[in-house]
Design brief:
The complex is a heterodimer of chains A (about 325) and B (about 260). Chain A is an all-alpha fold and about 325 residues long. In chain A, about 75% of the residues lie in helices and about 0% in strands. Chain A contains 16 helices and 2 strands. Chain A has a two-stranded antiparallel sheet with strand order 1-2. In chain A, β1 (about 150) and β2 (about 150-155) form a beta hairpin. In chain A, α1 runs antiparallel to α7 and α3 (about 60-80) runs antiparallel to α4 (about 85-105). The longest helix of chain A has 27 residues, at about 205-230. Chain A is globular, with a radius of gyration of 20 Å. With about 260 residues, chain B is an alpha/beta fold. Chain B has a domain at about 1-95 and about 165-250: 3-Layer(aba) Sandwich (Rossmann fold), CATH 3.40.50.300. Chain B has 10 helices and 10 strands. Chain B has helices at about 40-50, 70-80, 95-100, 110-115, 120-140, 155-165, 185-200, 210-215, 235-240, 240-250, and strands at about 1-15, 15-25, 30-35, 55-60, 65, 80, 170-175, 205, 220-225, 230-235. The chains are: A mainly alpha (about 325), B alpha/beta (about 260).
Chain lengths: ~325, ~260
């Protein structure tokens, strides 16, 4: 099989493996872990558009996940909206939040966007605690119903897994379409050289804002899925640490790639649940690893930036080129 | 017909007047060169012409429309394209993709059409690809189409940047030192390219240090010295102009000039 066929088949094979996984893994806890991996993959797919393609950094993506999660909770529990409507509203609210943040900060150059997203993230994590009437404050927001499409309730571990990964699939196809066509070229162009992109007539601010909004939308949808899968939302989930975790997954995943960040999102999510995945592992080892989790992510970012700036995707591309030459 | 009218353009940086009350015309279908010793204000003027910088005074009329105060992308849409002294290619993209970005100005389909892979967006994409191939053939570098820009030789990078500028569909092409870093063979190829571009009906303005190139391609030359225009005319006249000779000799044995 040559590389081209392999490249065409790889997404299909991956999709097949992801789809049949619940038939092979019956442990509901493990399925829950893989469901979380899918939710993270959804956030990271959006972040990959922003970082891996357009070269813009967000240090506050957990805030958009939080916006989506609380919006879903509020719409389903307080407003008693049908789940699908609440789900869409959650994405829309996060996208609107992204627009409001992006419009002023993306006109500025350099690290202002990173600073603005950092500030926004911190502000929102405070707001989730303080806006008690809406969010439930530090106690969190419980009793969120399972997803339901019309009369069809989605509540088993396997069906939740399928729902989440179906959304990941749709997001990946949409993201792939965007990146492989005109907007994707504009995104990579402004990453490569803003002067060059301007000289080509690229609407730099417009492309950045649209990319940011799309990535906030995916984060919001991921948040809504999280709220519906867990049934409970607490402000301790949507912190700076979570934002950095998402960014670490994206950076490790690599540039100009969707597959790299996807793989990194799944792998780095699984690291958090090593004890469940590797039955023989001593619980102390697993606990030590978990308590150093943030340090591991930080180290991963440093190592990738220092030794493999292209991330997983870059390593894969280089390996393939080396193979072609020999 | 006058395509570009530069009128009394002045640009100051603090106490320094980098461009001082410069006026000239560029006629359609010609190649015009801007020359002058280092620090004469060529690049500053060049940025003012393409809206990458805003002059303090004066006006730049392209086909009668004011370009001062507009954004770079407005000038691109109006039909003015440029290259840079330090090539501004998108290094992670292939030569072909670089040129396709130049074609963006003509494409209408945005994020939502691409997301849904609408037929209109797909056909637009195919046209951009074909146009990029056509331009790379015109410039004579079609064999590099799938090579990442970062891996291209310096001379080819300059040519890709010219192809990318042409993809915006300009009526006026401004080239900032296109021969810098090229060897003799590459410079000869560049001359051929410039003639081909002009013959395709595109007016050219170049800033250039390579006098051989300037004398070979230009219909008219504007000479700047310390921000002021000291001479303007066809190459033969410029070569004999006492003010020009003084300006260049006055700078000493500067290899660049």
């Amino acid at each position: 099989m040559d590389t081209r066929t392999l490249r065409a088949l790889a997404p299909l094979l991956t999709a097949a493996v992801v789809a049949v996984l619940p038939l092979l893994v019956t442990d509901p806890f493990l399925l829950r872990v893989f469901t979380f991996a899918g939710i993270n993959a959804l956030v990271v797919t959006g972040l990959a558009l922003l970082f891996s393609y357009a070269g813009q950094v967000s240090l506050g993506h957990a805030a958009f996940v939080g916006l989506g999660a609380y919006a879903c909770a509020f719409c389903t529990v307080r407003l008693e909206w049908p789940w699908l409507l609440a789900f869409a509203a959650s994405g829309a609210l996060a996208a609107l939040g992204g627009l409001v943040l992006a419009l002023p900060s993306l006109r500025l150059k350099g690290h202002y966007l990173a600073m603005a997203t950092l500030g926004f993230g911190l502000l929102m994590s405070l707001a989730f605690v303080e806006a008690e009437p809406v969010t439930g404050g530090v106690d969190g927001f419980g009793g969120i119903p399972f997803p339901a499409v019309g009369p069809l309730q989605i509540r088993t571990a396997a069906s939740l897994y399928w729902l989440v990964w179906a959304m990941v699939g749709i997001a990946l196809v949409a993201a792939f379409n965007v990146t492989s066509m005109r907007p994707g070229r504009a995104m990579r162009a402004l990453h490569g050289s803003e002067l060059g992109a301007q000289a080509c007539g690229v609407d730099i601010v417009g492309v950045k804002v649209r990319t940011f909004v799309m990535s906030a939308l995916l984060a919001g949808l991921a948040g809504a899925l999280y709220a519906s899968v867990v049934g409970f939302v607490s402000p301790s989930v949507f912190t700076l640490t979570a934002s950095i975790t998402f960014l670490a997954m994206t950076v490790v995943g690599g540039t100009s790639s969707l597959a790299g960040p996807l793989a990194a999102a799944v792998l780095l999510t699984l690291v958090q649940y090593l004890d469940a995945l590797i039955p023989g592992i001593p619980s102390e080892t697993a606990q030590t690893l978990q308590s150093y989790q943030e340090d591991i992510y930080g180290l991963a970012i440093v190592l990738v930036v220092a030794f493999a700036p292209g991330g997983l995707a870059g390593v894969w591309r280089r390996r393939r080129m080396g193979g072609d030459a020999s | 017909m006058t395509l570009l009218q530069v009128r009394n353009v002045t640009k100051r940086f603090g106490g320094l007047t980098a461009v001082d009350d410069v006026s000239f015309d560029v006629f359609e279908g010609t190649i015009k060169a801007l020359i002058g010793p280092n620090g004469a204000g060529k690049s500053t003027l060049f940025n003012a012409l393409t809206a990458f910088d805003r002059p303090d005074e004066g006006s730049v009329l392209f086909e009668g429309a004011e370009m001062v105060g507009r954004r770079p992308r407005d000038t691109v849409h109006a039909g003015v394209a440029r290259t840079f002294q330090n090539t501004q290619l998108f290094d992670e993209m292939t030569a072909g993709e670089n040129v396709m970005v130049g074609n963006q100005a003509h494409q209408r389909r945005g994020f939502s059409a691409a997301m849904l892979r609408l037929p209109a967006a797909v056909s637009e994409d195919r046209e951009a690809r074909e146009e990029a191939g056509r331009l790379l053939r015109l410039i004579g570098i079609e064999e590099w189409v799938d090579v990442p820009a970062a891996d291209l030789p310096a001379g080819t990078r300059r040519l890709v940047e010219i192809a990318r500028a042409l993809a915006t569909g300009p009526r006026l092409l401004l080239l900032d030192e296109p021969a810098a870093g090229l060897n003799a063979t590459e410079t000869r190829e560049l001359v051929q390219t410039l003639f081909r571009v002009r013959d395709a009906g595109i007016t050219v303005v170049i800033v250039e240090h390579d006098m051989g190139l300037v004398m070979a391609v230009s219909d008219e030359i504007v000479v700047l010295d310390r921000g002021r225009k000291i001479a303007e005319g066809p190459p033969r006249m410029i070569q004999k102009d006492p003010a020009v000779i003084a300006a260049y000799l006055g700078e000493g044995a500067d290899e660049d000039a």
